[in-house]
Amino acid sequence: MKIVVPVKQVAALDDDFELLDDGSGVDPDFLERDLNEWDAFSLEAALQLREAAEGGGEVVVLTVGDEGSEEALLGCLARGADRALRVWSDECRDADPLAVARVLAAAAEREEPDLVLCGVQSSDAVNGATGVALAGYLELPHVAVVKQIEYVAAESTATVKRELEGGLVEVLRVRTPALLTIQTGINEPRYANLRAIKQAREKPLEVSTPEQIGLKAEALAAAAGSRRRRLRPPERGAGAEMLAGSPADVATRIVEIVRERMA
Amino acid sequence: MSDVLVVAETRRGELREVSLELLAAALGVKNAFGGRLLVAVLDHQPERFVPALSVDGVDELLLVSTPTEHFEAHVSQRALEELIEAERPGLVLLGHTIDSLGYGPAVAAHRGLGFASDVTSLAWEDGPLAGRGAYGDKLVAELEFPGKDCTLLLVRQGTFEPVSAGPGSAPNRTVELALDGVAATEHMSFEEVQDSGVDITKAPFLVSIGRGVEDRDEIPRFEALAERLGATLSVSRPLVDAGWMPNARQVGQSGKTVKPRVYLALGISGAVQHLAGMRTAETIIAVNTDPEAPIFGVAHYGVVADLFEIADELEQVLD
Amino acid sequence: MPRDPKYDILFEPIQLGPKTLKNRFYQVPHCIGAGSERPGFQAYHRGIKAEGGWGACCTEYCSIHPESDDTSRVSARIWDEGDVRNLAAMCDRLHEFGALAGIELWYGGPHAPCMESRATPRGPSQIASDFELNIFPRYMDRDDIETVQQMYVDAALRARDAGFDIIYVYGAHAYLPFQFLSPFYNRRTDEYGGSFENRARFWRESLYKVREAVGDDCAIASRFAVDHLLGPASIQVGEDGIRFVEHCNDLVDLWDFTVGDIAEWGQNAGPSRFFEENHEKPFTGQVKAGNHTDKAVVGVGRITNPDTMVAIINSGQYDIIGAARPSISDPFLPQKIDEGRLEDIRECIGCNQCISRWEIGGPPMVCTQNATAGEEYRRGWHPEKFHPATNRDKGVLVVGAGPAGMECAMVLGKREMSAVHLVEGAKEIGGSVNWISKLGHSDGKENLFRGTARGLGEWSRIVNYRQIQLDKLGNVEVHLNSRLSAEEVLDYGAEIVIVATGCHYATDGLNAATHAPIPGADTALDWQLTPDQVVAGVKQIGKRVLVLENEGYFMGASVAQKLAGAGHEVQLVTQAGDIAGYMEYTLEAPMLHRDLHRLGVGIHTYTMLERIEPGVCHAYNVWNPAHKEQLEVDTVVLCTARLSDDELYRELKSDPARLAQEGIEAVYVIGDASAPRMIVDSVFDGHRLAREIDSPHPEMPLPFIRERRLWGDTTNEDYRTQLLNTVDVA
Asked: ipTM of the predicted structure?
């Protein structure tokens, strides 16, 4: 079986950071890069499915990212992915989730996977949208926020558990090929030992532009769902609204606020 | 000004609260810029939600009967795509919820819409302008949607004060769509999960106690209080340092980073290390005897008082 | 990140008489084992703090004359020109970084046994020391008083020449000036005894004379215990404490407030298991805040939190944040606050290992949190600077993330090794600290004299600091829940393997007293436990518990506290003459004894177990084995001995050919896996190996500089100078 795993090298903001002068983004010096936490789980799910598959299979990791994001791909290869593809051009620099999904779709189409496993969301952008948007482009059946997978190759189905709000879980069966977005905690991601990390450099890591995988610049531009006008610090009120009154009044008000917010 | 289409969200026969928040957001846009407000109900029996969604200002309810009893992503996707095709709204609002995240982005991708998720503010300048958090809400990104006739936004829950549910007097219309055979998944069952292990990072409501508690014997009392409030108990570092509570409960730099909907801090002064772990909570309520306590710098609501007095009264209120 | 403006007040200069302190960070006098005889140690240890931003650093207590000789404990001394030369090195080092140098002039009276000088100490009354064994002072007549006061003046002049900026007349910890002030020591009937003014006279005159001699050039300070904690028998803050401050306020530029005395100075240097941050506030906080002095005030309280520091200054408790232990644990604490790097602060855990070495008398100071403490000169270690290793291309696998493994991986990371993997079998890093920090008990309620039983929770700071540092190091990966077999280690792909797998408690009662297991001892039984099993809560513990303590440090007593605190009837048995002997050195013993007594723990010293049977332990007196005793108990906890978990290390070493075949160039063992020891020594072991990972033989420590006089050296000239000066004074 073949499983495609789109991943992302995320950027976490240092406590101390600066914006670019034009407000269009964060000065990259203040970003710490790492493999998106969710993607460690989707990769592990893919590796486990490959290991369980009769006749083996292949796990292909994809990313839309600059050269720096090869570190994340190498990490995936070290953990056991078979090969990697990185797609990048300057047009991808500020790509929104739809544009990223469009590029991933072009790459994934070539692979004809049995399953596409994405992370639910990325820890930096927290869109939660790229995976399902990719399913939209690929016109694949899809299930979001999956925390358990039982894949039945012979029937071309997977029985999955989907995590809903408030501790509710839905069990459902999905036709495959399908795209699943994977929730953290579904498994315990393995790590790569030093030998595997060294050997990862010997595995295939292909680098392409969107053009090279058949996606024209105009199509990519048209796919974008939004454009960022600027980044700004959040408005934090001028400190707390102070609740006055007797302890009894204050306690009543606290309970009211809690009930409002938790409703 | 074009129309706004809100997709109400239902689960197991109940209207979800986020639907009324979306109506509030949509009414804000409509009242400022005109256009019609349409509300779509995609449900096995959509008519049962007519009364609750008949809110003043809603121009029409579009009732779409789904062949599946429960939410099915592909059915919702097809239904919404057809409604957009038929109604041509300029703005479509969904909740940033697990169900809507399961099909909204696919709709946007498939139809080439303007799109943003986890939206926390909404404005209009010749078209929608959306704000959303970036980098763990340390920043806000302002998004525009140039060249898009229709924009689909997933709105963060709790961002807008929900409107009161009807009954009002909204007209409604049944929309027949060909949805048979669209489903790609088959519902098997629901399971209720009882999580025995404590994971404060996942708790939507934390009651957090700190140094102000002073006495180990008081901890069970706060555990009970948290439970009665429907919250999980977390602590600041001094209580872990003292060995009174396990590390798993600690909020802060050396503990867990949490982002609950409500964070009620009792007797926590707010050392920087602590603030780093909780400052992005959606609503922070702080009780402390020291009016200068740093926690008030990040709190939304502050109370200068002894935490035990407040705890006494909270217990009274709950009785 | 720039400094948070709320901490600006900590960086405001303040005037101390003729000197300006550049900020509010002040290393109060504290012992390190350097004195005047290890000038390199002295200069570089204090100097590293000046580099780290402390506005002033002081010597330890500094003897003014051979009559005040604390041998074998190491004090500084300023007896002669040789001492001036050695201490000048410290002053120069401090001045390089813009810090002031302080010296604490000390005359101990009966608390100085004079075992090297063989002089006779003088005191206000002829009462033996309550701290030393059988040391009586000579009663001081008027001439003696003048002679000793002249010793202070001569020492002050020498101190000024050495370059000191702040000169103390040290009276805290119940040394001579305080002995005059306190009726507990002073039973005189002349003009130096009786009334308050008479008892204060010696101290006031001494301050006056020192100020006359050097007050134009140097700031005059006095360290004063505002409350002796003995009630009406001695100085109480609300009585003579505040009265004395007002009485001598005109003669000082800086007050340095403490509480207690030397006999139980753990009340001042409070261990974390009994005292929280800023614990002296109820006493020392009354003076400045009550407007009883307009002079600058410094005080301590193991203060590591910058918010506490700001609150202390804003509340009027102190003007200057004093620190001894926090400055040892993190010499760069001020700089880290200034740079907004609060998460990098290595907070003191209050274990008092630093103090223990001074109490033992002779060894250099150590620190559990800061392995470089005391090593600044002799090993050239800097707490914040690390040289890139010359073999940094090597991949390193550290197996086990306890104190040694965490420290080793962290330092290797800071030394820019290309890849360091720290692999831990448990679900979190920390090793034994994770369960040890749950020891003791903390009811937070009962007041024991002054402190409160708090347990060992703050020891978890050992883990917290390293966790934060490890998270920051891009070249270090930490992998949890992964217990590696020898085969997995061989296959790991590391060139250097470091085994830090810890140790375990003997399950059969093997102990250092009899060098044999105890018949009947078996912690596989459901009614016998090792201490870690007690914390893990894996077995039901009966009403009556016997804890056997053969280690001599905290374990047995802490288990007894924990169980007694939970309502069990506990008997604590040791072969030694006292339980937890080492806790005398860490100053934890007095409070521990109070707590054990309060909890009703039965203590059996000089007692060992002959055999253990269900329901009964057969004990005997170690001096008379024929004297037997039967102790009826339901549960037995064996804190007898620890054994290294070194199977992995032994297995790896057993096949050199395979190691070579796998490309493993070296296998080292550190921490408890090498030999069970105290946490402070395990951390050091891990640090040491990482510092020397690129030395010719990393398994063997490099030699360190020994500060000693070499025979035939030119310092013979110094001997003559010293001799002449000593004669002059006498």
From this structure: 0.87
